[in-house]
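Q: I'm building a small set of examples for a reading group on sequence design. Run inverse folding on the following structure and report the sequence directly after it, with nothing in between.
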């Protein structure tokens, strides 16, 4: 059965993405929609980037972190470095966790293993590649599915404009309360990320939020940018199932524990 899934705000947590895909038994017949912000804060932004690029059935839209990253990279080409302090765009990006993506880029390019001349050439080409990737991403996705008209968007839409296409692209990636506290177009079902759900849910949890007032919005940002109490939320549009992978399961201690348990099981089988 072909299933459609939606996630958002991975923030460099590649292991959590892999655990999720394993849990839902994701295969070539399924589709996954990623509502932006794969970059920053976490350790493996570049791994997520290449993985998504390699998958024909994973569709991504642009988030505010991709926008900040693009603006900074444009300036980085000018200053000939990823994190030159003269780059005001980088300073904003850095404050929002961009330094972790810079570290990820340098590790990927093997900065400490090649000559500076080689690193300079590779870095310049790679920055251009990332800019082109971000430019290729849509700001939102609309689709009719199982009798509903879905709008998949990173942050939200302008509630005063019935058609999504009339919303300013920057606002699609940055808006918060004015969107999710307004009725918007009641003929649409909006699925969005960007705002950690601990700031929306009355109980302060990170669980998927369903608009209790208008019934036409679903928030899915599980707060991976907030800290170790967050979680990766996944909504299956096909079945309505909500899947959760806790933040701690993607961290080193949990990974080492799983490897140890797998080795024990393998040892038992060999006996």
């Amino acid at each position: 059965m072909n299933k459609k899934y939606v996630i958002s705000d991975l923030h460099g947590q590649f292991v959590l993405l892999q655990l999720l895909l394993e849990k839902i038994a994701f295969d070539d017949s399924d589709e996954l929609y990623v509502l932006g912000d794969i970059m920053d804060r976490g350790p493996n932004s570049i791994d997520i980037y290449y993985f998504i690029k390699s998958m024909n059935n994973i569709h991504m839209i642009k988030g505010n972190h991709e926008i900040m990253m693009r603006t900074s990279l444009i300036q980085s080409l000018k200053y000939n470095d990823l994190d030159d302090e003269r780059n005001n765009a980088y300073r904003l990006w850095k404050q929002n966790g961009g330094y972790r993506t810079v570290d990820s880029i340098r590790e990927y390019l093997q900065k400490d293993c090649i000559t500076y001349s080689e690193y300079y050439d590779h870095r310049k080409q790679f920055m251009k590649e990332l800019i082109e990737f971000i430019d290729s991403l849509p700001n939102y996705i609309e689709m009719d599915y199982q009798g509903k008209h879905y709008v998949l968007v990173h942050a939200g839409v302008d509630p005063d404009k019935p058609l999504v296409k009339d919303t300013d692209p920057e606002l699609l990636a940055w808006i918060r309360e004015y969107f999710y506290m307004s009725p918007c177009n009641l003929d649409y079902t909006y699925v969005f990320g960007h705002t950690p759900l601990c700031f929306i849910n009355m109980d302060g949890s990170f669980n998927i939020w369903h608009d209790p007032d208008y019934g036409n919005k679903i928030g899915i940002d599980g707060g991976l940018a907030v800290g170790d109490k967050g979680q990766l939320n996944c909504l299956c549009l096909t079945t309505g199932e909500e899947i959760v992978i806790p933040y701690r399961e993607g961290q080193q201690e949990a990974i080492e524990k799983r490897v140890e348990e797998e080795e024990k099981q393998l040892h038992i089988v060999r006996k």
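The CA atoms of residues 72 and 90 lie 5 Å apart.
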